[in-house]
What does this fold into?
Amino acid sequence: MRISIVTPSYRRSAWLKLCIASVADQPGEVEQIVQDAGSDDGTLDWLPRDPRVKAFVEKDQGMYDGINRGLRRAGGDILGYLNCDEQYLPGALSAVAGFFEQHPQTDVLFGDVVMVDAGGRYLYHRKMQTPLKYHTWTCHLSTLSCAMFFHRRIVFEYGLLFDPRLRDVGDGEWIVRLLQRPVKMAALGQFTSAFTCTGANMSAGPNARRESRELFHSAPLWAQRLKPLFVLQHRLRRLLGGMYRQQPFAYEIYTLASPVRRQRYEVNRPTFRAPG
It folds into this structure.
Protein backbone atom coordinates (compact mmCIF):
# COMPACT_ATOMS: atom_id res chain seq x y z
CA MET A 1 0.00 0.00 0.00
CA ARG A 2 1.48 3.28 -1.13
CA ILE A 3 1.34 6.40 1.06
CA SER A 4 1.69 9.97 -0.17
CA ILE A 5 2.53 12.77 2.25
CA VAL A 6 2.17 16.41 1.22
CA THR A 7 4.19 19.12 2.96
CA PRO A 8 3.38 22.79 2.32
CA SER A 9 6.51 24.90 2.71
CA TYR A 10 7.41 28.55 2.95
CA ARG A 11 10.46 29.98 4.69
CA ARG A 12 10.88 27.05 7.11
CA SER A 13 14.14 25.57 5.85
CA ALA A 14 15.57 24.18 9.11
CA TRP A 15 12.27 22.64 10.23
CA LEU A 16 11.56 21.24 6.76
CA LYS A 17 14.80 19.25 6.88
CA LEU A 18 13.64 17.52 10.06
CA CYS A 19 10.20 16.88 8.62
CA ILE A 20 11.65 15.28 5.49
CA ALA A 21 14.02 13.12 7.52
CA SER A 22 11.10 11.79 9.57
CA VAL A 23 9.28 10.69 6.42
CA ALA A 24 12.33 9.38 4.59
CA ASP A 25 13.20 6.77 7.24
CA GLN A 26 9.70 5.25 7.27
CA PRO A 27 9.67 1.71 5.82
CA GLY A 28 7.35 0.82 2.98
CA GLU A 29 6.32 2.58 -0.21
CA VAL A 30 6.16 6.25 0.78
CA GLU A 31 6.41 9.42 -1.30
CA GLN A 32 6.68 12.95 0.05
CA ILE A 33 5.55 15.86 -2.08
CA VAL A 34 6.85 19.25 -0.95
CA GLN A 35 4.90 22.25 -2.22
CA ASP A 36 7.09 25.31 -1.70
CA ALA A 37 5.57 28.72 -2.34
CA GLY A 38 8.89 30.33 -3.31
CA SER A 39 10.93 30.44 -0.12
CA ASP A 40 13.76 32.97 0.03
CA ASP A 41 15.37 31.71 3.25
CA GLY A 42 17.78 29.22 1.66
CA THR A 43 15.24 26.40 1.22
CA LEU A 44 15.59 26.46 -2.55
CA ASP A 45 19.37 26.08 -2.29
CA TRP A 46 18.87 22.42 -1.35
CA LEU A 47 15.22 21.34 -1.68
CA PRO A 48 15.06 20.87 -5.49
CA ARG A 49 18.10 18.57 -5.30
CA ASP A 50 16.90 16.47 -2.35
CA PRO A 51 16.32 12.96 -3.78
CA ARG A 52 14.03 11.98 -0.91
CA VAL A 53 11.17 14.20 -2.04
CA LYS A 54 9.27 15.39 -5.09
CA ALA A 55 9.63 19.15 -4.86
CA PHE A 56 7.41 21.67 -6.63
CA VAL A 57 8.13 25.38 -6.34
CA GLU A 58 5.21 27.60 -7.33
CA LYS A 59 3.25 30.48 -5.92
CA ASP A 60 0.01 29.54 -4.21
CA GLN A 61 -2.90 31.21 -2.44
CA GLY A 62 -1.83 29.97 0.98
CA MET A 63 -1.15 26.78 2.89
CA TYR A 64 -4.37 24.97 2.02
CA ASP A 65 -4.01 25.79 -1.66
CA GLY A 66 -0.51 24.35 -1.48
CA ILE A 67 -1.85 21.20 0.18
CA ASN A 68 -4.52 20.84 -2.51
CA ARG A 69 -1.89 21.13 -5.24
CA GLY A 70 0.16 18.39 -3.60
CA LEU A 71 -2.85 16.13 -3.09
CA ARG A 72 -3.76 16.36 -6.76
CA ARG A 73 -0.24 15.14 -7.58
CA ALA A 74 -0.30 12.28 -5.06
CA GLY A 75 -0.13 8.73 -6.33
CA GLY A 76 -0.67 6.97 -3.01
CA ASP A 77 -3.56 4.86 -1.82
CA ILE A 78 -3.40 6.68 1.52
CA LEU A 79 -2.81 10.42 1.80
CA GLY A 80 -1.78 12.80 4.56
CA TYR A 81 -0.16 16.16 5.05
CA LEU A 82 2.62 17.13 7.39
CA ASN A 83 3.65 20.71 8.08
CA CYS A 84 7.31 21.67 8.28
CA ASP A 85 7.37 21.79 12.09
CA GLU A 86 5.81 18.33 12.42
CA GLN A 87 7.28 14.83 12.20
CA TYR A 88 6.29 11.19 12.04
CA LEU A 89 7.51 8.84 14.75
CA PRO A 90 9.38 5.62 13.84
CA GLY A 91 7.10 3.02 12.25
CA ALA A 92 4.12 5.37 12.12
CA LEU A 93 3.33 4.92 8.45
CA SER A 94 3.69 1.12 8.63
CA ALA A 95 1.06 1.10 11.38
CA VAL A 96 -1.19 3.35 9.31
CA ALA A 97 -0.83 1.18 6.20
CA GLY A 98 -1.53 -1.95 8.24
CA PHE A 99 -4.73 -0.47 9.65
CA PHE A 100 -6.05 0.53 6.24
CA GLU A 101 -5.21 -2.90 4.84
CA GLN A 102 -7.21 -4.54 7.62
CA HIS A 103 -10.05 -1.99 7.46
CA PRO A 104 -10.42 -1.08 3.75
CA GLN A 105 -13.76 0.69 4.31
CA THR A 106 -12.14 3.28 6.58
CA ASP A 107 -11.94 6.70 4.94
CA VAL A 108 -10.06 8.69 7.61
CA LEU A 109 -7.74 7.52 10.39
CA PHE A 110 -6.41 9.50 13.37
CA GLY A 111 -3.28 8.79 15.38
CA ASP A 112 -2.07 10.23 18.69
CA VAL A 113 0.38 13.13 18.94
CA VAL A 114 3.33 14.07 21.15
CA MET A 115 3.62 17.83 21.67
CA VAL A 116 7.24 18.98 22.00
CA ASP A 117 9.10 22.28 22.43
CA ALA A 118 11.53 23.77 19.90
CA GLY A 119 14.31 21.61 21.35
CA GLY A 120 12.30 18.39 20.96
CA ARG A 121 11.52 18.01 24.68
CA TYR A 122 8.17 16.63 25.78
CA LEU A 123 5.47 19.10 26.78
CA TYR A 124 2.27 17.04 26.73
CA HIS A 125 0.37 14.69 24.45
CA ARG A 126 -2.96 14.38 22.68
CA LYS A 127 -4.79 11.07 22.30
CA MET A 128 -7.38 11.07 19.54
CA GLN A 129 -10.94 9.93 19.13
CA THR A 130 -12.97 10.37 15.97
CA PRO A 131 -14.34 13.93 15.91
CA LEU A 132 -18.01 14.80 16.41
CA LYS A 133 -19.72 17.11 13.92
CA TYR A 134 -21.30 19.72 16.16
CA HIS A 135 -18.43 19.82 18.63
CA THR A 136 -16.02 20.45 15.74
CA TRP A 137 -18.36 23.00 14.18
CA THR A 138 -19.05 25.08 17.31
CA CYS A 139 -16.04 24.44 19.58
CA HIS A 140 -12.80 23.35 17.94
CA LEU A 141 -11.23 20.51 16.03
CA SER A 142 -10.27 17.82 18.53
CA THR A 143 -7.77 16.10 16.21
CA LEU A 144 -4.46 17.24 14.73
CA SER A 145 -3.68 17.14 11.03
CA CYS A 146 -0.16 15.76 11.57
CA ALA A 147 -1.75 12.50 12.72
CA MET A 148 -4.57 12.39 10.14
CA PHE A 149 -4.52 9.99 7.18
CA PHE A 150 -7.20 9.48 4.56
CA HIS A 151 -8.00 7.26 1.61
CA ARG A 152 -7.41 8.74 -1.83
CA ARG A 153 -11.12 8.37 -2.66
CA ILE A 154 -11.73 11.32 -0.31
CA VAL A 155 -9.99 13.55 -2.89
CA PHE A 156 -10.36 11.74 -6.19
CA GLU A 157 -13.89 10.33 -5.85
CA TYR A 158 -15.62 12.53 -3.27
CA GLY A 159 -13.81 15.68 -4.45
CA LEU A 160 -13.25 16.88 -0.88
CA LEU A 161 -10.32 19.28 -1.04
CA PHE A 162 -9.49 22.06 1.41
CA ASP A 163 -10.95 25.55 1.11
CA PRO A 164 -8.01 27.65 -0.21
CA ARG A 165 -9.60 30.87 1.07
CA LEU A 166 -8.84 29.81 4.65
CA ARG A 167 -5.46 30.29 6.24
CA ASP A 168 -5.70 28.61 9.65
CA VAL A 169 -8.85 26.54 10.27
CA GLY A 170 -9.10 24.82 6.89
CA ASP A 171 -8.67 21.41 8.50
CA GLY A 172 -11.56 22.01 10.91
CA GLU A 173 -13.85 23.25 8.14
CA TRP A 174 -12.83 20.26 6.00
CA ILE A 175 -13.62 17.81 8.80
CA VAL A 176 -17.07 19.37 9.21
CA ARG A 177 -17.74 18.74 5.51
CA LEU A 178 -16.55 15.15 5.88
CA LEU A 179 -18.84 14.62 8.86
CA GLN A 180 -21.77 15.98 6.89
CA ARG A 181 -21.48 13.18 4.32
CA PRO A 182 -20.65 11.22 6.57
CA VAL A 183 -17.46 9.26 5.93
CA LYS A 184 -16.16 6.32 7.94
CA MET A 185 -13.56 7.41 10.52
CA ALA A 186 -11.43 5.50 13.00
CA ALA A 187 -8.77 6.06 15.67
CA LEU A 188 -5.50 4.12 15.52
CA GLY A 189 -4.83 4.28 19.25
CA GLN A 190 -1.06 4.82 19.09
CA PHE A 191 1.35 7.72 18.77
CA THR A 192 2.22 8.47 15.15
CA SER A 193 3.37 12.08 15.13
CA ALA A 194 5.16 14.91 16.89
CA PHE A 195 3.98 18.52 16.78
CA THR A 196 6.59 21.17 17.57
CA CYS A 197 5.38 24.18 19.54
CA THR A 198 7.79 26.67 17.98
CA GLY A 199 6.02 29.81 19.16
CA ALA A 200 5.23 30.65 15.55
CA ASN A 201 2.43 28.13 14.92
CA MET A 202 -0.31 29.79 12.90
CA SER A 203 -3.13 28.23 14.92
CA ALA A 204 -2.36 30.59 17.81
CA GLY A 205 -2.65 33.85 15.86
CA PRO A 206 -5.42 36.44 15.48
CA ASN A 207 -6.44 35.23 12.02
CA ALA A 208 -7.02 31.76 13.41
CA ARG A 209 -9.31 33.21 16.06
CA ARG A 210 -11.21 35.18 13.42
CA GLU A 211 -11.66 32.15 11.17
CA SER A 212 -12.74 30.07 14.17
CA ARG A 213 -15.46 32.62 14.94
CA GLU A 214 -16.63 32.52 11.33
CA LEU A 215 -16.78 28.72 11.38
CA PHE A 216 -18.76 28.86 14.62
CA HIS A 217 -21.28 31.32 13.16
CA SER A 218 -21.74 29.11 10.09
CA ALA A 219 -23.25 26.40 12.31
CA PRO A 220 -27.02 26.24 12.83
CA LEU A 221 -28.21 28.69 15.47
CA TRP A 222 -29.54 25.90 17.67
CA ALA A 223 -26.08 24.25 17.61
CA GLN A 224 -24.39 27.52 18.57
CA ARG A 225 -26.67 27.79 21.59
CA LEU A 226 -25.94 24.21 22.62
CA LYS A 227 -22.16 24.68 22.58
CA PRO A 228 -21.78 24.09 26.38
CA LEU A 229 -23.49 20.71 25.98
CA PHE A 230 -21.17 19.74 23.13
CA VAL A 231 -18.17 20.65 25.31
CA LEU A 232 -19.53 18.49 28.14
CA GLN A 233 -20.26 15.62 25.76
CA HIS A 234 -16.73 15.84 24.36
CA ARG A 235 -15.08 15.77 27.79
CA LEU A 236 -17.21 12.90 29.08
CA ARG A 237 -16.54 10.91 25.93
CA ARG A 238 -12.80 11.41 26.34
CA LEU A 239 -12.97 10.47 30.02
CA LEU A 240 -14.91 7.27 29.33
CA GLY A 241 -12.66 6.47 26.37
CA GLY A 242 -9.50 6.60 28.46
CA MET A 243 -8.09 9.61 26.63
CA TYR A 244 -6.84 11.15 29.88
CA ARG A 245 -4.79 8.08 30.85
CA GLN A 246 -1.33 7.26 29.52
CA GLN A 247 1.45 5.01 30.75
CA PRO A 248 5.08 6.20 30.62
CA PHE A 249 6.47 5.95 27.11
CA ALA A 250 9.33 7.07 24.87
CA TYR A 251 9.53 8.76 21.50
CA GLU A 252 12.27 9.47 18.96
CA ILE A 253 12.46 12.55 16.72
CA TYR A 254 14.93 14.67 14.80
CA THR A 255 15.92 17.98 16.36
CA LEU A 256 17.71 21.13 15.29
CA ALA A 257 20.64 19.91 17.37
CA SER A 258 20.46 16.43 15.78
CA PRO A 259 19.09 16.78 12.24
CA VAL A 260 20.46 13.48 10.87
CA ARG A 261 19.81 11.11 13.76
CA ARG A 262 16.72 10.67 15.89
CA GLN A 263 17.02 11.52 19.56
CA ARG A 264 15.19 9.42 22.14
CA TYR A 265 13.17 11.00 24.93
CA GLU A 266 11.72 9.14 27.91
CA VAL A 267 8.40 10.38 29.25
CA ASN A 268 8.06 9.24 32.84
CA ARG A 269 5.18 11.53 33.79
CA PRO A 270 2.85 11.84 30.82
CA THR A 271 0.22 14.58 30.90
CA PHE A 272 -2.62 15.65 28.64
CA ARG A 273 -2.48 19.20 30.05
CA ALA A 274 -0.74 21.88 28.05
CA PRO A 275 1.70 24.00 30.08
CA GLY A 276 0.09 27.14 31.45
The chain has ten helices and eleven strands. The mean pLDDT is 96. Residues 16 and 84 are 5 Å apart (CA to CA).
